[in-house]
Write a structure and sequence with these properties.
The protein is mostly helical and about 425 residues long. It has 20 helices and two strands. Strands 1-2 form a two-stranded parallel ribbon. Helix 10 packs parallel to helix 12. The N and C termini lie far apart (about 70 Å).
Length: about 425
Amino acid sequence: MTERETHRAIEAVFRIEQAKLIAGLTRIVRDVGLAEELAQDSLIVALNHWPESGVPRNPGAWLMQTAKRRAIDYFRRNKMAARKLDELGYDLREIESTAPDLDTPLDDDVGDDLLKLIFTSCHPVLSPEARVALTLRLIGGLTTDEIARGFLAAEPTIAQRIVRAKKSLAEAGMPFEVPRAEERGGRMASVLEVLYLIFNEGYSATAGDDWTRPQLCEEAMRLGRILAGLAPEDAEVHGLVALMEIQASRLRARTAANGEPILLLEQNRALWDQMLIRRGLAALDKAETLVGAGPYVLQAAIAACHARARKAEETDWRRIAALYDMLAEMTPSPVIELNRAVAHSMAFGAGSGLAILDAVADDPALRSYHLLPSVRGDFLVKLGRLAEARVEFERAAGLTRNERERILLLDRAAACQPAA
């Protein structure tokens, strides 16, 4: 193996172990930023030593031991930090004595620490954008450049966002813990919201030239599976995993070879990933056996209706409409009403959908949302009101920031022109 290949192998190992490593170190030093620096230091040491000595049998334990030694050196050099460590009830001998056995995998006691790190990186004290960036950095192991490319942001912007997030957590003195039961619901909702934001940006990119960004979907699903393993009795965690798996099963069918978007009812269902569908349906079955099913479980049940239909015309739209009615009652929002309108139009006719849509058309939350005129245009086409539909599609094209979607909407507008 060449030195370059060895370095790539080391970096791959580090990406796998990084979240567990940072979680364990944060428990000791009580500072996410310092824990990440110590983890990075251990990677540098590995890059220097492993090409000659070889990758150890349990690389995670080796990296943790190295990082702990770096922590000890740091606290010995920094008296202020040492006083802080003492206030937290640690001393250097305790850190030294807890160095992992190099024959023991790092996974043994990492579950609680990793769950604490997820809750910390998704803390409501941070803005949603900061939570997303920090989660992808600490839990997902993505580089700043990868996060920036995924969200079409400048790398310095993402870097500053991550730095400020870590600083905010340190200044606020956030405890490194899984919240108590009475707090956990709200905090878990924040965690799930972050994962869903990441997934949705991958599934339907809000800006740029690409319709989808599969890497973000894959990262959100990976994080969701980790969370499901750490919180096995939480129905909404399994519901979100089910929703993401089923939605992601359509990714290959959502774009043509030239990148042009293909809408759900026009997709070649033979291209849907059956393994992801099976995994998603299994996660939904698990969620439906647990107490506390909420909006993610309902959305997963809606996605399952599409997944079970071998042909578009076999879709059970009446059940989907009923599920959207339940979802709207549980978590009322203009966006849910828009989706409910689509379901009702398919189940009961475009007039039914248009009535629901027009009831929320003036809501401020939908004023600049391109899907409102896009969906309204679709209803108007079905009702034969082509001139009105063309205006709606053109308005939608002016609101979207995704170039592929803009072209699709302009094509639909052009199709509404009366024949010469």
